[in-house]
Each structure stands twice: as structure tokens, then as C-alpha cells.
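Let us work through a complete example step by step.
Step 1: write down the sequence.
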Amino acid sequence: MRHTVVVARLALLQMARSRPMLAYLLALGAIVAALSLFGGDPAKVSLTLASLLLLIVPLITLVLIALQQYNNREFVEMLLAQPISRRAVYWGQWTGMTLALVGGCTLPLVAGYFVWGNYDVALLTIAGVVLTLCFSALAYRLAIGQPDKARGIGLALMVWLYCAVLYDAILVVAMAILEDYPIEKALLVLLALNPIDAIRVALLLHSDASALMGITGAALRGFFGSERSLVVIALVVTGWIGYPLLRGERIFRRRDF
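Step 2: predict the structure and record it as C-alpha cells.
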């Protein structure tokens, strides 16, 4: 456990000091400031920020985690040459990088709330943290499993493109083709195939913002109701965080550096 904490601290400092991390922090802060000043009423600001977080946080998290892991390859090899277990290195690296990204996402939201206070900071902060956890786990798994940097970054971008764009397009086409058939229950199963959609629905169920609902959100709330739907979403999100990390640890332990 002590070794894991030490590795996590080193990874946190490396990520926090990187220029891309600073750019992420400043860009998100600028977005929060602009929307708080010119976005209008609090409900509209919260809705706009939520929509942007659902797109920006997954993309930045995927790219930065993958880049940092590839750039730290020699550092990881140096750690493995020390009397430190592979498990400590694996979990320490992920924890440190993820904590840095969680800070980069939450600090602008919290600071902006204390300055302007015109959006739902608790809801947006929780959404940002969960999005960061989900996609940092996915990016870490991709970087561990794919030795080639170019392919790994490409896979990370493809994951974001699927979750942010293609998934909803596929659902719309499927709904149009199968409009004469009852496919609501099938949509509930498809909810588990996209963490962005799951978190979007959770935001809807908490804020009742219909613009965030989406197709699967309407089906989920109609089928389960709000409270049970949140339990289902929590299980889906836990799976998206836990499975890639456990699978990545297995690969990391067997990998020949």
C-alpha cells in the first residue's frame, strides 16, 4: 500500500505539471467564466455546462491518460526495476493521473461557483468526476494493452467518437427502421453500451432537464422510474470503471517490459 501511494504521488505531480493539463484547466475555467457571465439564468447555464462536460471531459481524459502513459514508459520500466510490485505500480499510476484530471475538472467548476454561483455545482462536479473515472479507466486499459503509441491514441479517439457521436446516430437510425416494433426494453440494454449516455440520463433524472434526456433516457425513466433508474445507472458506471481496470491489471502483470 505504501508503494502504491508513493507511485500515485509521483504520477499526480507529473500529470499536474504537464502543459496539456494546465491547458485543460484554463480552457475549462474560461468556459465556466463565459457561460456564467453571459449564459443567462442558472438553469440554462447548468444545462449548457452539463452538455459541454459530456463532450469535453471524456475526450480530454482519454487523450491525456493515454499520452501520459505512453510518455512515461521509461519511468514505469524504472519503477519495475525497483523492489515494487507490479500491482502497486499499476494502481499507483492510474490513481495519480486520474486524481490530477479530477482536479482539473472540478477546480474550475467549484471556483466559478464561488465567484458567480449561478449553476448546480454539486451535480456538475459529480458528473465531471464520474466521467473522468470512466474514461481514465478506458484510456489506461487501452494504453496498457496496446504497445504502439499511434494505435493507442487512435483507439482512444475512436472510443470517444463512438460514445459521443456514433452511438446516438445508431440509435436514431434503429428507431427509424424499427418504429413499428416495441424496442424500449432493448434500448435499456443498449444503455449499458455507452457511459456518456448513462451519465446523461442520470443528470436528467436528477435535474429533470428534458433536453438531456435522449432516447434511452425516456425509455429508462418510463420503465423503472427515477430511483430505480439511478441504481441501474450506478451499476452500469461501476462496470465501466471496474472491468477495464481489472482487465488492464491482468495484462500489466503478464506484460514483458
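Step 3: interpret the result. The radius of gyration is 19 Å.
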